[in-house]
Amino acid sequence: MATDEKNFFQKTIQHLARSLASQKEIPWEKIQTIYSLCPQEGHQGVFKMDQRGQDSIIALGIYLLESNFQHVDHILPYLLKLLNGLGKMQWVDEIKYFPRERIPVAERMSFCLNTLLTDIATRYPVSREKIIEAQIKCLSKLSNIIRSAKSDKLNDITKTTLCKATIPCFIGLARSMGRATLSDPPLLCRLFPKPSAPIQQIPVPIPDLNIPKKKSFSNFRSIIPRSLSLNLNLASLDVMTLSSLDPMNDLNNRMIYKSECKLGSQAPNNMSNYFFFKYGSSFNQFPYTRFTDSSIDHKSSTLMFPLGHLQTVLSIAKKILTSDVLGFVDSLALEFHISGESKTFCYRSFSEILNLVIASLLRELLQYQQDLPLPFTKDVQEFIKDLFLNGQTELQSGVLQDTSEREDKESHLTTINKFKINVLANAACVDLLVWATRDESGADNLCGRLMEKINSSNNVKQALAHMPLILVCMEGLGKLSEKFPSIASTCIQCLRDFLVQPSPILSKLNKFHSEKQTPKGLTITVNGVNEVKPISSDHVESQFERLRNSSIENLCIALRAAYTLDPFCVPALLASLSNRLYTAEKSKNDSSLIQANTIVMLGHIAVSLRDTAKTSDTILQFFQQRFCRVPSSIDVLIVDQLGCMIIAKCDMNVYEEIMRMFSTITVEAGNALYSHDQSNQYRHVSGAVINALANIAANIKGDNEMNELLVRLLELFVQLGLEGKRASEKAPVANKASSSAGNLGMLIPVIAVLIRRLPAIIQPKPRLHKLFRDFWLYCVVMGFTNDSGLWPSEWYEGVKEIAIKSPCLVTQTSTRSQMRELQYTSAVRNESVSLNQLQELKSQILQHLNPAPPEVTAAVNKLSFAQATYLLSVYYLETMRIQNSNDPSLQPIFDYLSDYAIQKDKTGLWHCVSSVGDKVFSLFLNAMSIQAKDEIREKKLEYHAQLLLVNFNHIHKLIQCVADKWLSGLVSKFPHLLWNQRVLWTMCDILQVLSYSLELNPNNETPCIQIPSSSFTLMLMDTLEARESTTNDFAARSLGFIQEAMKWAPSATRSHLQHYLTQIPSSSYWHHSGLSLATESVLQSSGLNFHAAPLSV
Questions:
Q1: Helix-helix angle 703-730:652-675, to 10 degrees
Q2: What are the angstrom distances between the C-alpha of 1005 and each of 648, 956, 1022?
Q3: Per its UniProt record, what SUPFAM superfamilies does this chain match (predicted)?
Q4: Considering only 791-805, 1010-1024, 1068-1082, which range has the smallest mean pLDDT?
Q5: Element (H, E) at 1019
Q6: Residues whose CB is less than 8 angstroms from the CB of residue 268 and which lie 6 or more positions away in sequence, other chains included
Q7: pTM value surpassing 0.85
Q8: Degrees (nearest 5) of the Cα angle 773, 776, 782?
Q9: List of E strands, 173-233
Q10: Average of pLDDT values for 308-320?
């Protein structure tokens, strides 16, 4: 809002109201603080309204709504008194909330007060009848004041009061009356939302120029237009997943307001900047300015006015909207505007805004009313028809538009644009005419008029100006189809022809955008700046998309209505479209536009009517017949629609067929790339298919569906890898496999998009596990694991994202032959690799493991190609996982070290993996050291200390040595773990478990014993001698651990051990080794008691 100085009081009192509202059963005396600041009734019921009074009333309303109507018996009567005194209210000052605010203060306050009362009526049903009746009386009283003034001799004060207060109050009441929603927050709280929590000021660290910024792993274009995003139930979309959105930019911000309101980066629930700026605006005014929760039934959240009140509103409308009254108030407005008495007065005339707000009010009150008496409906119809025809006469003259533009230019947009308001008023009239139609004959006649309007031949300037009216006409055809299915076929034909004839409006908008030319003299005025700016080509394109999407949405509504009578309406539509496409291809006029509209239309129909029999299947067949027959940009559109059909979960057969098509296209396009075949029919759509797969990966719902898609993508990746390898082998010159990897790498960001939405993959099925092995093999061979600049950086970022949740590449069976069979089961065989390539891989391994122990160097030199690529796969997977995961863990490395096949490999592969583990451990320490020093990191460190303590007692001696080495490294990096309570207690618990194992019969089956108060289990040795040795080793290690802790933090260590003594019940264990260790450690480090020392002789 404007400035902190001006709004300090407003913010303070709203904070107070919200604080009081959060308390239950608060006494009225505390609310008096706010209530006493509100205007109080003076002589003859007159209220003096200043800015602080307005702020206090709004704060009182916020308290009432957010406190769940505490003290409503005190507050509601006061609000109704304010409403009753609206016509006599004295307005002391004129202060704007926003610099760009344009409506009069009296209108703003009337709008806010009645929005509050409507919220109360909606959410507190006991008061509903009383509030509605009071609003009707107020509307009637204000209208009587306006009409009676026409016959009176007016002095300057009366004229000023009418223009500054009475008429604006009437407008504000008409804008807010009857608008309701049950979704939270209430409408008043959307105008004045809760302030956001203050952002914690964190010192900005000096950036390290050596650390590269994290890049996005994808740069895909969304294939989902706004019109389908709601149909697909895309409640949220990770904006980072798809960085380039559709032309309307509505996918990441589904406020349907956006294209009309241009709220920009404002929060969706803060709308005061819009309603205090847009003349005649109201909640739920038009389809494209509707702001209600789509999950709420609009009918149930609408205030249903009794017939008597509806008749009163209609009577008021008839009396106010007469030519005499409108002419009178227009003359008043012009005179007052010229006088310049008010700095917030924006009306050169009142007639246009009165037409709009009254038509919009009638629309809001009547749209969900049913079974009203026929005479009343006829009365509404005749009145609105006259209003509509009068508005059309003015709109078609063209003079009003030129005059309005000139006035806008002169006033810097500070006064009302009469032409735009007239367009909006006519749009509201169309909605009412559709509602008032009660028989098929009337519906047929109205349908004809709507068709004339949407097919009118306007230039680009007129088309953009009439856009709200055209869009409402589109929606009218859809509503008429729903009400009267018998005329749905007529509406279908009209909307079909609008798209594929095409309509002159569509054709001109498309042509304007295509040519990207700015006609001379076609200008708009920038808000607040007196400069001329050409119509933007992007603006024209967005309006074109909006118009096309609206026609397609309503065509789908009409088709669904027609389907109830004619199940073959979709095939009939396809037949007519085939004929139109055939003729369009032979014509040069709008051929590409007709084809594009047809494809987009059918994609929408396939999604919207996916629950009807054979609709998706029929449309898929149509797409297949047209696809790549003659390569063109239309094929890309077809791919986009096919992707939307998969996301919408159309028929399973359709899903299978489309995925088969995508796989075929990707493979054949890849083969063409390898063979440099320029004639391949799929080359121009391979990128579109990858993009569609990315959209599917980002939006497909269901765990089973996502897992199945992952398998398909990995299969396609491996298949492309095999095709590329074959191509490189057939090449006349010996090429590296990486020279054929271009098409293969395109799938990496797609897989990354999907992997990002999945949980970490643990214990996958054998097929998926094998696919991941092959995936990492190809990544190593093709060089995707290095950010060397050879491949796009997005691929490398995608590989890192995949590494975070990829399963470990351990063997899934206990057979020792798996590593020997690796050379036969690998996607790339040993015989297909040259000795130089194998030696290069070995050098790469030794470079990564440098400095490598002698036994590791000797083992690496013996590795086959399959083993070398496997080792590199493990290295890159685990180092990337540890570096990029938010929760780095050493558990995967222990899984490799415990792998039976790796342990039994005779080439020394285990030592190589152990060396990889050392690198991973070093990266783990670095990753943990840069994390915030908070409780979360502490728990992670405790967990890994426990993990290492458990693995210190592993059944394999080599793993014990690794765990011992890493435990020393961990406490060296984080010494406080030495005296950490959980670590010390776990050590004592493990010692007790080991001691207990000595009492078990070694001839029985070797058990796994749970470590108390942890998630770890301990596998015991087979023999009693081995168990004794392990117990002695761990006891010695633990004692040394505690002794070191006593050196660093004796008090804390002693305290934790003493606390441990109290946690062991005396009856549970008569011989508790952990207890003995703790007791011994405490006694050995207890020190001297100087108070009890003997006196010297």
A1: 20
A2: 54, 18, 9
A3: ARM repeat
A4: 1068-1082
A5: strand 1017-1019
A6: 253, 255
A7: no
A8: 135
A9: none
A10: 93
Residue whose structure tokens are 């290295």: 875
Residue with tokens 């014990």: 960
**Residue 569 in tokens:** 């309406």
- ∠ CA(190), CA(191), CA(197), 5° rounding? 65
Tell me the backbone φ, ψ of residue 242, rounded to 5 degrees: -125, 105
Whether 352 has a pLDDT exceeding 70, the answer reads: yes
pLDDT of residue 477: 93
Residue 618 CA: distances (Å) to CA of 198, 571, 573, 629, 656: 55, 7, 11, 18, 15
Domain locations along the chain: 7-193+274-285+303-436, 437-516+538-566, 567-692, 821-929, 931-1087
State the CB neighbour count (10 A cutoff) for residue 518. 14
Residues 6 or more apart whose Cβ sits within 8 Å of residue 989: 1011, 1012, 1013, 1014, 1074
Q: What are phi and psi of 532, to 5 degrees?
A: -100, 135
**Which residue reads 């004295």 in tokens?**
90
Q: What is the pLDDT of residues 213-257, one digit of tens each?
A: 445 556 788 888 777 766 666 534 433 334 333 323 332 332 223
Q: How far apart are CA 726 and CA 671, in angstroms?
A: 10
Q: Residue 341: helix, strand or coil by DSSP?
A: coil
Residue 533 main-chain phi, psi, to 5 deg: -135, 135
Q: Cβ atoms within 10 A of the Cβ of 999, count? A: 9
The amino acid present at 995, given as its one-letter code, is S
Q: Are 234 and 699 in contact (CB under 8 A)?
A: yes
Reading the block at residue 587, the tokens are 């014509």
The letter for the amino acid at 211 is: I
Amino acid at the residue 64: L
Q: How many CA atoms are closer than 13 Å to the CA of 716, on its beta-carbon side? A: 29
Nearest to 22 by CA among 203, 255, 251, 194: 194
SS3 assignment for 1060-1093: HHHHCCCCCCCCCHHHHHHHHHHHHCCCCCHHHC
**CA terminus-to-terminus distance, the chain:** 85
What's the pLDDT score for residue 963? 93
In 37-194 the beta strands, taken as DSSP E runs, fall at: 48-49, 90-91
- Name residue 413's amino acid: L
In the structure, what pLDDT confidence band is assigned to residue 290 with cuts at 50, 70 and 90?
low
- The contacts of residue 299 (CB under 8 Å, 6+ apart) are 368
Task: Write the DSSP string, 805-841.
Answer: HPPP---SS--TTTTTTHHHHSSS-GGGS-HHHHHHH
In this structure, the dihedral spanned by the alpha carbons of residues 1016, 1017, 1018 and 1019, taken in order and rounded to 10 degrees, is -140
966-988 pLDDT, tens digit each: 999 999 999 999 899 999 888 88
Does residue 317 carry a pLDDT above 90?
yes
Query: b/e map of 62-87 (b: 16 or more CB within 10 Å)?
Result: bbbbbbebbbbeebbebbbebbbbbb
Looking at residue 199, what DSSP letter applies?
A: P
From residue 881, give the alpha-carbon distance in Å to each of 194, 417, 671, 800.
Answer: 41, 60, 33, 7
